[in-house]
Write a structure and sequence with these properties.
489 residues, 10-stranded mixed β-sheet
Length: 489
């Protein structure tokens, strides 16, 4: 029988950021509400689509006063590990209050306090306007990251009211949430506020330089000008008007070509984020934090569906791969990719080859380097890989497939109905909770050594779970690709 869980929803953790405080840094709210409440407003955002169903994701109430969090607790009189969820969505969309992030079952199964946080997104959270506006608009491009830090400060000051132990805080997140966590690991302002980190399908190579952030801002202002708005109006425009500019900006093919699919990302600047995360971790800036990180076997199929990408020729495949690696390495790369697809019984089509390359380039290799850097700096690290395939064959084990297993919010249409689905929920929840309680994801069912031991990791495979070793051949090949290249997502 599960533990009875209390929910505290829409708890405000920050002072106001609306009106004249738009783009100001958030600050911890001193007054604490411990009353049961309703779901709070989420960050203003454009409509996003589920690439599996290709239907719009239901949007919750939006408001710029969005800095609230949800707490799921087994009891206020406990002193339990705290797990803080940072949602993904490409730094542009998502919220803490989506049904798939309901923390009730994880809190019950793991006997932990689960906290999920909202933070500012896209043009309100990750758009650097301070330089291009000559200081009129104070945004550095790190307002969203700063909100996450404010929430962690609030948790340090207040989580005991909800039965949590502020001396045992684990941050966990997926996609842009995991990429955010890599930045938090690298931030001297943030990395004293938590003790462990779980990064799902995101690592330390996603960020912007000040130069790139200013180029993004310039193009955003160009879109505003085309719609009849001037930058001087930005502080008083409605959030709807700002989102209309953002929609125009994101619809331009040249923006995608210049900045990739993530134009809004944290910015390397000042005290908040002085170094790229992979560099900071290599320098030992986060060696006091224990890291668990991993990826899914077919990450890119999610984005291929979203972008309606389907290449059908060898020329198109080689042209795309050439954007990532040297021409002399293309054939060895594709030979290795074919071997990986065959080993996983995936069809060797041109699109599947490209998806496998992108999965390695944007997800698997950054994950390996994050953990390898942490270990070489003297820290502790663990790794996993999820390979449970969806009944929707074209997706395999795609991006975001892990979320349902972590929160026990699986969907029969997407995850399937076989006994292995509930088995994976139990295994993954047990390992995540063990990590929060005991500093290791090892359980009685799944012994799990640290990654430095023969580059050994937990493989949550389609039918069963077991320990596997990272291929030295793969590591050797991808070591030819620079960190700067991996950071071009």
């Amino acid at each position: 029988m599960g533990i009875n869980i209390q929910q505290f929803l829409g708890v405000c953790y920050s002072t106001s950021i609306a009106d004249e405080k738009r783009w100001q840094a958030s600050e911890v709210r001193s007054k604490v509400s411990t009353e049961l409440a309703n779901i709070g407003p989420i960050a203003p955002q454009l409509t996003s689509f589920n690439p599996v169903s290709m239907s719009p994701i239901k949007s919750l109430r939006q408001n710029e006063e969005c800095l609230n969090l949800n707490v799921f607790t087994p009891g206020r009189d406990k002193n339990l590990p705290v797990m803080v969820w940072i949602h993904g969505g490409g730094f542009q969309s998502g919220s803490a209050s989506l049904p798939e992030y309901d923390g009730t079952k994880l809190a019950s199964a793991g006997n932990v306090v689960v906290v999920s946080i909202n933070y500012r997104l896209a043009c309100l959270g990750f758009l650097r306007l301070c330089d291009i506006s000559h200081g009129i608009i104070p945004s550095t491009g790190n307002e969203g990251l700063g909100d996450q830090i404010t929430a962690l400060k609030w948790i340090q000051e207040n989580i005991h009211h909800f039965g949590g132990d502020r001396q045992n805080v684990t941050v966990f997140g997926e996609s842009a949430g995991a990429m955010s966590i890599a930045c938090l690991l690298a931030s001297p302002v943030a990395n004293t506020l938590f003790h462990k980190a779980i990064l799902q399908s995101g690592a330390g190579h996603t960020y912007s330089s000040i130069e790139k952030a200013n180029m993004v801002a310039s193009e955003f202002v160009n879109s505003a000008n085309q719609l009849g708005f001037a930058i001087e109006q930005f502080p008083v425009l409605s959030s709807e008007a700002l989102l209309s500019i953002q929609a125009h900006f994101l619809a331009r093919p040249d923006v995608y070509q210049k900045f990739g699919i993530l134009p809004f990302t944290p910015v390397i600047e000042n005290e908040l984020l002085p170094l790229p995360p992979h560099e900071a971790i290599a320098k030992g800036k986060a060696k006091h934090i224990i890291i668990l990180a991993g990826t899914n076997a077919d990450e890119w199929t999610f984005f291929a569906a979203l972008l309606q990408q389907n290449i059908t020729s060898k020329e198109a495949l080689e042209g795309a791969v050439y954007q990532l690696i040297d021409a002399k390495d293309i054939n060895p790369c594709l030979t290795q990719i074919d071997e990986q697809l065959n080993n996983r019984n995936r069809p060797v089509s041109y699109q599947n080859q490209l998806s496998e390359v992108y999965c390695e380039f944007w997800f698997a290799q950054p994950c390996h380097r994050l953990l390898d850097n942490q270990i070489k700096a003297g820290g502790r690290a663990f790794r996993y890989k999820l390979c449970r395939r969806s009944p929707k064959e074209q997706f395999g084990c795609t991006h975001a497939a892990d979320i349902g297993f972590v929160f026990d919010t699986t969907d029969a249409y997407f995850h399937g109905r076989e006994p292995r689905v509930s088995q994976l929920v139990n295994e993954i929840q047990s390992s995540w909770a063990a990590f929060a309680h005991n500093d290791t994801p090892a359980t009685a069912e799944n012994p799990w050594p640290s990654y430095e031991e023969n580059l050994c990791y937990m493989l949550f495979d389609h039918q069963h779970s077991y320990l596997a070793e990272h291929s030295p051949k793969s590591i050797d090949f991808w070591s030819r690709v620079s960190d700067q290249k991996l950071a071009s997502f």
